[in-house]
Amino acid sequence: MSPANPRLRRRGLPAGPVRTARRLGEVRRAQLVTTYGVGAVIAVENESFLVRGVDSWDVSEAPFIIEPRLSRKLGVKGFRLPPAPDPDRATDGVRAVRFPVMYSCPACRLLQPFRKFNPPTGKAECSTCQESLVPSRFVMACTRGHLEDFPFWKWVHRGTRRTEPGTCGGELSFHADGSTASLRAVRIACSCGAEEVSMEGAFRRQALRDLGIRCGGRRPWLKDAPAEGCDEPPRTLQRGSSSVWFPVMHSALSIPPWSEGIDKITARVYAKLKDEDAAFIRRYVQVENVLKHHPQYTPDEVVACVERWRAQESEPPEEAEGDDDARADLYRGEYDSLCKPHPEREDAADQDFVCEPPVDPIDALRASHGVAQVMLLKRLREVRALQSFRRVEEPSPADGPQRRAAISLEKPDWLPAFEVSGEGVFLRLDNERLRAWEEEHPGVDARARRIRHNHERLLRERIGPSGKPVPTSQATPRFVLLHTLAHVLINEWSLDGGYPAAALRERLYADEEMAGVLIYTATSDSAGSLGGIVAQGDPDRLDATLRAALQRARWCSNDPLCMESEASGADGLNLAACHACVLLPETSCENNNILLDRAALIGTPDLRTPGFFTG
User: Fold this and answer.
1) Does position 165 have pLDDT exceeding 90, yes or no?
2) CA-CA 20 to 30 A from 546: which of 427, 496, 499, 513?
3) Above 60 in pLDDT, residue 172?
4) Does the pLDDT value for residue 171 go beyond 70?
5) How far apart are CA 357 and CA 339, in angstroms?
């Protein structure tokens, strides 16, 4: 087994006076940030577990990741890769706790807490039937991130005077005969004589509240976490549903000066040197040959860099008030760097950011498509960090801090993260032509305003009666145009360049002063290292790609319904956009496939609203 895979462990059942860590399995490091992060439910063979908070992880040997811009915005000192200890001597790793607690036996049909089956150590078996146990399919969660087992006892005994589980003296049983695919075929019974009931209706929004069931405020992924007071209505969810865990992630590109030179070299050893004096740092640099391949630098420069970073850490963090503020600041710095040439140097091994214009002029692109600038990113590095997570509803700009579940009991000074390297192409549209398209055609803003109205209505509903100001929707004509352009280009490059669409990602830079889109490959698997994405930025090739992408966007197999739609997609946050034309895999889109409209590119068939590329 590869030591690069973090090991999931839990505290085993008592088998004597000593409690040992039981190894459950392995997942990739990136998955512990994106898919199976803190608070996520993970299935291991016939068992189910919850990944515990970062304060229970053994990070003694977990590598540090340095990305100063991102750490300042998130209010932490840095980031760490999830631990991946040596398999030959590892005694711990990423912790997990059993969840849900309720299991059933397919032979005797009993439905009860796992420990009551008295299973053998390290196995999930019924001690009576020797059958593998099955974890409950149903859990209960609320929008503040709390999670607990589904209240089967209360569900069965609804309408009775008994209010406390177990007071009837009976045993629950679980029956799923598979006669139908509906919840009507899943039945719960109690040996006390209570009427057998099905799970039909359990997923209604008010089903649990109507029975007087409230959220218990439990956070089982945090060790010894006290229950919180919570007024949010609980919801029934499938244990394996994506609604059980939505990550709240942030990312940043490494840009100069932190992406090269002495800053990059110091980043590799900063964790060991940040608390040491200058004499120790000089000695360490010489003994460990830190500058062996970089003779142009001196130990004194490493000392100066460490002291500079140490001073930055001592300052109060510039933690942004909301996701939009953090993102705007990060993206502004990236946009400025993307617009400036940053050529490859002779000591290119020290560079994480190489950005150059194409050799050939882009006059044809400027005249025919309004593309003011093309930059080829031959090398880039991205850091993606997990800050928190949500349940039931996906993250939204309207979310307050109380709706983001904590990944540790106390606020951590580091966050789990991983870094990826890749390449990309950056396009900047002509700002004057773009402003003329936005201001001279009323239909352009009218279509964007329709999306913006739906978006702000959704944000208002998410905020509720709290009185918090409604965030401004980013659904401007410029944003919708750039977002849809990124999607059609990714779809075109997935056909022409050989990349799966899921291996390409977008990064949008859209406000009154910014009008750019970065399409890049930065994945942790082999699909992100095929090479060749920069070749797509050759002006002649890009011109042909844009023509083909726009021609393909003119017709969708769902037309005329797609083009004439008044609202489409989740919560009506798209117009002319569907899976047959511009939608992408979720991993490729940074906005969850919303705020899209093909008409922003090619106009409407009645010619009343021109597209940017047809005006």
Assistant:
1) no
2) 513
3) yes
4) yes
5) 9
Q: Is the pLDDT of residue 19 over 70?
A: no
Across 28-37, 458-467, 489-498, least confident range: 458-467
The whole-number average pLDDT for the span 146-171 is 82
The percentage of the chain sitting over the pLDDT mark of 90, rounded to a whole number, equals: 49
- Collapsed DSSP state (helix, strand, coil) of residue 373: strand
Could you give the CA distance from residue 90 to residue 61 in angstroms, rounded to a whole number? 11
> CA nearest 381: which of 287, 255, 474?
255
User: What does pTM read for this prediction?
Assistant: 0.87
Both tokens assigned to 613: 């590329």
Q: Where are the beta strands (DSSP E) in 146-195?
A: 147-149, 172-176, 186-190
Q: Would you state the pLDDT for residue 388?
A: 94
Distances from the Cα of 378 to the Cα of 285, 352, 496, 546, angstroms:
30, 9, 19, 21
Sheet holding 102-104, edge to edge: 134-135, 102-104, 110-113, 172-176, 186-190, 197-198
d(Cα 118, Cα 130) in Å, to the nearest integer? 11
- To which H or E segment does residue 431 belong? helix 431-440
The mean pLDDT of 148-172, rounded to a whole number, is: 81
Taking residues 137-164, report their average pLDDT.
Answer: 87
The residues, any chain, with a CB within 8 Å of residue 25's CB and separated by 6 or more, are: 7, 8, 44, 45
Radius of gyration of the chain (CA): 27
Predicted confidence (pLDDT) per residue in 299-316, tens digit: 888 888 888 877 776 665
Find the helix or strand (DSSP H, E) in which 424 lies: strand 414-429
- Chain centroid to Cα 515, Å, comes to 24
Distance separating alpha carbons of residues 159 and 154, to the nearest angstrom? 9
Q: Which of 10-14, 185-189, 433-437 has the lowest mean pLDDT?
A: 10-14
- Max Cα–Cα distance, the chain, nearest Å: 83
342: closest CA among 351, 355, 332? 355
Q: Quote the pLDDT of residue 18.
A: 41
| Share in percent of the chain as helix, strand, coil (round to 5) | 30, 20, 50
Q: Which of 332, 337, 335, 331 is nearest to 251 (CA)?
A: 331
Q: Is 518 helix (H, G, I), strand (E, B) or coil?
A: strand
Which two tokens mark 571?
A: 């919560």
CA atoms within 13 A on the CB side of 304: 6
| Integer angstrom CA distances of residue 179 from 108, 136, 155, 175, 185 | 19, 19, 22, 11, 6
Residue 269 exposed, middle or buried by CB count within 10 Å (0-12, 13-18, 19+): middle
How far is residue 508 CA from its own chain's centroid?
A: 16
Buried b (16+ CB within 10 A) or exposed e, 67-81: bbbbbbbbbbbbbbb
> How does DSSP assign 206-261, residue by residue?
THHHHTT-------TTSTTPPPPP--SPPEEEETT-GGG-EEEEEEEE--TTTTSH
H/E stretch holding 42 reads strand 41-44
β-bridge partners, 424: 377, 520
